[in-house]
């Protein structure tokens, strides 16, 4: 039986033989129906995106696919737990996979924002394009390491019938750190969007360029909001403690974690970078421009027209910039 809300997790006694637990570690019986629904949802989305990755040959989107694979594997563990409630391996599978998966979604939106910045020009961003991927991915790795350390301390405390409060607090610190950096990223992304909307040269040729930029921007926005809400839920969950209300009521987990991650990954079934998009620092091509276009980005060409910079462009490109 679970302790009261907010009580310390290891007030239970943990007796296990191999991979078998002698108590209900969830505080409820996981829903088999929910397990099947989310397992099917993540499987179908991931398979669809694998197919799209091969058709488009945008290989770096494998990062998104890996996130989907981890969510699918996590829900295999969750469904397994619904059938075998006391199986420790099922619990560990879902815990590890469902904690790691959103980091791959985060890395995807970091890379996509960098891609947009390379397309429209550095002047629309406070940071260089590559900085988003490096800074925020490193922050995610650090936060995951902190969460993993906290989880390890908690697990060791459970095995020895000791308090897991220290481990839980360390895990909470890792989640708060991850949420903080995602909020910083969101602020920077909003800044890019506002600069673009204020720029007349951007608006004057938006009809020629937004065919791919705007959908990707919306995809980044939706995914980022989903990740932030999930981070807030996870923060509240651990703040309450292992026996807290959020942790011991499955509907909150299904709605504020898994359903949000379905939306986060699923939005990229509708928006996808084109073949030839790169996450390198090459500024010689516009990542979001129509495929026949080559040379400098449209933002730089518009800047050249206003006297801000001088960039040579092919005649066909000049026509595109003045449409």
UniProtKB/TrEMBL annotation:
InterPro entries: RTA1. Keywords: Membrane, Transmembrane, Transmembrane helix. It comes from the Eukaryota. Pfam families: RTA1 (PF04479). It is found in: Membrane. GO terms for cellular component: fungal-type vacuole; plasma membrane. Residues 279-323 are annotated as: Disordered. This is Uncharacterized protein. Coiled coil: none annotated. The chain crosses the membrane at residues 32-51, 58-76, 96-117, 129-150, 170-194, 215-233, 253-272. The keyword Membrane applies. It is a multi-pass membrane protein.
């Amino acid at each position: 039986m679970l302790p009261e809300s907010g009580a310390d997790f290891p007030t239970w006694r943990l007796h296990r033989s191999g991979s078998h637990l002698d108590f209900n570690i969830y505080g409820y019986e996981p829903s088999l129906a929910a397990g099947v629904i989310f397992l099917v949802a993540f499987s179908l989305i991931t398979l669809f995106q694998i197919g799209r990755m091969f058709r488009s040959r945008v290989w770096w989107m494998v990062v998104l696919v890996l996130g989907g694979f981890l969510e699918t594997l996590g829900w295999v563990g969750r469904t397994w737990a619904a059938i075998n409630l006391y199986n420790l391996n099922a619990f560990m599978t879902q815990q590890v996979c469902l904690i790691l998966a959103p980091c791959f979604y985060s890395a995807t939106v970091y890379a996509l924002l960098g891609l947009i910045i390379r397309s429209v020009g550095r002047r629309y961003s406070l940071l260089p394009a590559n900085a988003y991927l490096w800074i925020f991915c490193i922050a995610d790795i650090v936060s995951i390491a902190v969460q993993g350390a906290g989880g390890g301390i908690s697990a060791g405390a459970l095995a020895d019938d000791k308090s897991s409060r220290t481990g839980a607090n360390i895990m909470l610190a890792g989640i708060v750190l991850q949420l903080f950096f995602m909020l910083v990223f969101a602020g920077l992304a909003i800044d890019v969007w506002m600069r673009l909307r204020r720029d007349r040269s951007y608006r004057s040729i938006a009809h020629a360029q937004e065919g791919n930029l705007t959908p990707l921007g919306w995809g980044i926005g939706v995914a980022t909001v989903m990740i932030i809400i999930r981070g807030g839920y996870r923060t509240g969950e651990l703040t309450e403690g292992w026996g807290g209300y959020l942790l011991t009521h499955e509907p909150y987990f299904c709605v504020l974690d898994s359903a949000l991650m379905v939306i986060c990954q699923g939005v990229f079934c509708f928006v996808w970078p084109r073949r030839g998009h790169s996450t390198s620092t090459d500024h010689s091509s516009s990542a979001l421009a129509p495929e026949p276009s080559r040379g400098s980005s449209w933002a730089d060409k518009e800047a050249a027209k206003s006297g801000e910079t001088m960039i040579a462009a092919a005649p066909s490109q000049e026509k595109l910039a003045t449409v």
